[in-house]
């Protein structure tokens, strides 16, 4: 069946001068170069934007998909929908695509990029492509082949960013979600520091420009940063982050280490019933958020994204709909007042939608720590 589970995410943010300094101080030359290129190709700023001191636009779009047959718990959507969404997003102006091997839409992303390059809409160097190393490929000898497979899927010579999807290894083999006869995940014992050394080698080999992590808590980041012989720091930590889980402590920690916090679930996730408790609060329906949205004459989604941008977080936002994609790009067109930011801060309840139960029980399961 040509169907798969997709997440489609995108976000765009414009960085104010102080935020820009924060973003570039993390010291990864390639990422800085990307930011500078983005600055060069941005559309002219409106006068209010210039007055507000905006320096640049960085466009983010991310998409991901999980395969049917791998896990019945993934929602199935036609792969063609992902391909179409990738086309729409690039046309709308998104330039950063966040995908992953596990989403099984790397091929569609690759097709969309190639077709837009052929049509003269973008050049390869305009795009910032992120993909992720899946947990079954953490054994050192599997890392480079896994990246090469992703690059082949994406029809690329290099990725801009390669991320360890979780800090928890799973048993390698044919199945991306290996389970025992009782349906319990088969986890492994690889030290993520050993995996990281191979990511460093992939960077040195030119297969990827920057390397990062996802779903690491601060203790795991600390252990990685203190790894003897560490050659490259992770440039980012991609974690669930939104108004109900604003990650203030992890964000402070990441900023102190020059690690960019990238937010998924920024709009409250897609609420797939297989992954998210359907009784959990719907983020975009929050009455306080809706009040702030009304006051600012913007949608709740835009306020939710803008809240993250103003805190120096890079938000991803998923959508299949062209109108939503285009709307989300307006996140740069306004600012929230300090009072509104404070009101929105008050919504935090350290509530996590996606707790990756399939990795629970492993000593490196990341979400038992406070942050
Ligand atoms: N590293 C990880 O472990 C991890 C885990 C999860 C996700 N991610 C990444 O993060 C991305 C996004 O996260 P997510 O899947 O949790 O979704 P999300 O971005 O928090 O939310 C997506 C939902 O928001 C809706 N939406 C988008 N724009 C909207 C707008 N302007 N107004 C109203 N609703 C709007 C979408 O609606 P429609 O669908 O109707 O368009 C979709 O249902 C993923 O694609 C993936 O790249 C990473």
TrEMBL record:
GO cellular component, one term: cytosol
GO biological process: daunorubicin metabolic process; doxorubicin metabolic process; progesterone metabolic process; prostaglandin metabolic process
CDD domains on file: AKR_AKR1C1-35
Gene3D superfamilies xrefs: NADP-dependent oxidoreductase domain
GO MF annotation terms: aldose reductase (NADPH) activity; androsterone dehydrogenase [NAD(P)+] activity; bile acid binding; ketosteroid monooxygenase activity
One Pfam family cited in the UniProt record for this chain: Aldo_ket_red
Alphabetized InterPro entries for the sequence: AKR (IPR020471), AKR1C (IPR044482), Aldo/ket_reductase_CS (IPR018170), NAD(P)_OxRdtase_dom_sf (IPR036812), NADP_OxRdtase_dom (IPR023210)
UniProt KW Oxidoreductase keyword: yes
Source domain of life: Eukaryota
Family: Belongs to the aldo/keto reductase family.
PANTHER family according to UniProt: ALDO/KETO REDUCTASE
Protein name stated in the entry: Aldo-keto reductase family 1, member C13
Species: Rattus norvegicus (Rat)
């Amino acid at each position: 069946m040509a169907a798969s589970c997709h997440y489609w995410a995108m976000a765009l943010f414009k960085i104010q001068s102080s935020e820009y300094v924060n973003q570039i101080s993390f010291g990864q030359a390639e990422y800085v170069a990307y930011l500078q290129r983005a600055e060069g190709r941005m559309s002219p700023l409106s006068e209010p934007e210039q007055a507000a001191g905006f320096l640049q636009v960085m466009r983010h779009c991310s998409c991901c998909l999980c395969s049917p047959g791998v896990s019945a718990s993934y929602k199935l959507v036609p792969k063609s929908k992902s391909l179409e969404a990738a086309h729409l997003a690039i046309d709308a102006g998104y330039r950063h695509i966040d995908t992953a091997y596990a989403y099984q839409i790397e091929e569609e992303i690759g097709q969309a990029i190639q077709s837009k390059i052929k049509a003269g809409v973008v050049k390869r160097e305009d795009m910032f492509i992120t993909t992720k190393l899946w947990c079954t490929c953490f054994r050192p000898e599997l890392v480079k082949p896994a990246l090469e497979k992703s690059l082949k899927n994406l029809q690329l010579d290099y990725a801009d960013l390669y991320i360890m999807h979780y800090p928890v290894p799973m048993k390698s083999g044919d199945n991306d979600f290996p389970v025992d006869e009782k349906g319990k995940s088969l986890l492994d014992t690889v030290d993520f520091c050993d995996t990281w050394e191979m990511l460093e080698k992939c960077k040195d080999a030119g297969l990827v420009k920057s390397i990062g992590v996802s779903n690491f808590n601060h203790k795991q980041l600390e252990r990685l940063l203190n790894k003897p012989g560490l050659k490259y720091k992770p440039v980012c930590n991609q974690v669930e982050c939104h108004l109900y889980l604003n990650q203030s402590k992890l964000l402070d920690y990441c900023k102190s280490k020059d690690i960019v916090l990238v937010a998924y679930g920024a709009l409250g996730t897609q609420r797939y019933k297989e992954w998210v408790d359907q009784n959990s609060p719907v983020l975009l329906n929050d009455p306080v958020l809706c009040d702030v949205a009304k006051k600012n004459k913007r949608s709740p989604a835009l306020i939710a994204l803008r809240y993250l941008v103003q805190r120096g977080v890079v938000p991803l936002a998923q959508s299949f709909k062209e109108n939503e994609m285009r709307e989300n790009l307006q996140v740069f067109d306004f600012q929230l007042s300090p009072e509104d930011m404070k009101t929105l801060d008050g919504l935090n309840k350290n509530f996590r939608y996606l707790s990756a139960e399939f990795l629970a029980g492993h000593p490196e399961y990341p979400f038992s720590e406070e942050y």
